Amino acid sequence: MEHLAIEVRYTLLGIAVALGAATVLVLVARWLFNKDQDGELTSRIKTWWVIVGLFVAAIVPAANSAVWLFAFVSFLALKEFLSMTPTRRADRRVLFYAYATIPLQYYFAAVNWYGMFIVFIPVIMFIALPARMITIGRTEGFLKAAGTLHWGLMLTVFSLSHAAILLTFDPTLSDSVRLIGSYPSEVGKRHPGPGLLLLLVLMTELNDIFQFCWGKSCGGRKVAPTVSPGKTYAGLIGGAATTILVSIILGPKLTLMDWKCSGIAGVIIAFAGFFGDLCMSSLKRDLKIKDFGATLPGHGGVLDRVDSLIFTAPLFFHFVYYFYG
């Protein structure tokens, strides 16, 4: 655990305390006020305990060990995506190659091979998978099959892998950084990745909660009524403001970013997370499904849980990489 700075450990402990408080509140509400009788909220919190437990178990052994947890998440997300979207039977072998990209993409993240990480799926597989499809000899539905498969890889593997590569982010490898990091501790300076990853994931999930609470409390005009009727401008603005404020407070205590960069990161996470959620809602409406699966009780499928992270992870990583990498 030497790679986990004290600020990271305290943040993980704070998350556990918050989950414990939520668990007690739900139990009291069920007992005193007969709330949550269908058990949905209880299921959600139980699933959160499992998610947090897996995250802690993955991040403790080594600085880059949690990379493989994200690889497994990408596998489940791609499986859900391909099971819900129509594909051609002739492309079964091509689908195997698509799954085979996952360990390679995350290997590049685990060893911090940025050059291959950034081109492997958007460039190499963008060419290789359609080329393999051509050798099958079927042209009917070619555009739809190739587009669906590449978009699925970009969403579920390439985008999510940006969260994983934060773990191996090392500003000392570059001699042309635009900003000098302000580290909260010596361990945080040697291993800045866990703090950055924790800030990204925590703020992305809190942003969903803040926007839901503001939207429920204030109501008002809807942002995209045909896509997600529950999302209002009050929820978006109130949630974004709260996310930015929390990011300004938490960012300098957990990462190498000062309060200004933490605030900009909060803006990126707030709005990218919002549109990531809307994007996946559009996809579900197009496919005429409520959830992508039932892997996570109370949440739906894995894709339902990481929908915001799909948009926040690449933008957050490249923001940090541009200024500090």
Walk me through the topology.
Layout: H1 6-33, H2 40-59, H3 67-84, H4 92-110, H5 114-136, H6 142-165, H7 186-190, H8 193-218, H9 233-254, H10 259-287, H11 302-305, H12 307-324
Helix pairs in contact: 1-2, 3-4, 3-6, 4-5, 4-6, 5-6, 6-12, 8-9, 8-10, 8-12, 9-10, 10-12
Could you say which overall geometry the principal axes of the C-alpha atoms support? globular
Radius of gyration, in Å, reads 20 Å
By helix and strand content, what is the structural category?
mainly alpha
- Major sheet details: none
Total helical elements: 12
Helix content: over 70%
Q: Extract low-pLDDT stretches.
A: none
What series of H and E elements makes up the topology?
HHHHHHHHHHHH
- Strand percent estimate: under 5%
**End-to-end span in angstroms?**
24 Å
> What's the pLDDT, averaged over the residues?
92
Find the count of extended strands (DSSP E, 2+ residues). Answer: 0
